[in-house]
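Re: the 189-residue chain
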Amino acid sequence: MPKKINYTLTTESVQELQKAIQSSEYPEVRRRALAIRQLHLGKKPKEVAAMFLVSAATINNWWHRYQLLEVAGLANEIKHIPKRKVTPAYLAKIEEALAQEPESLGYAYPIWTLETLRDHLHKETGINISTKWLGIVLQQNGYVFRRPKHTLSNKQDPEAKKQAEEAIELLKKRALTEQSAFSLWTKRA
């Protein structure tokens, strides 16, 4: 027969849980702290499990982690620490690539997207990271995404543009000095 667990907490522990419920930046900590508080209030693990849509074993696991590490034990565990792929040399390649337009490097597209930048960096460095992680790395290093402004100014002939502007000005002046012959309305003399 399993031994009965006493889920009663001290006043300090209840206050610590309440603080975690109200102000933890991690949603899983807030949720698990609520579950621990329900155990303290006299609910059985099966009842709490039904409230939080998890198994009773999960509730007991949360309780044991809380007993060992207090509120810190309610956070998700890091399964493994990934090897750091983004090195200072990789950051230098990012800066070098973003200082140039993709077309100048022989690509057919005019702007960098996360996907195209990631592919270029993979080709240059041999390091392949996800676009999500690349976005985080760019943000951490002060880069912000701006939508490109699509204009045709680089495709326009400056001389033809100047002639068109002069023609428009001439038409505006002529319209101000001439009476329109196309109006059906006239003023009585």
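Residues 21 and 27 are 9 Å apart (CA to CA).
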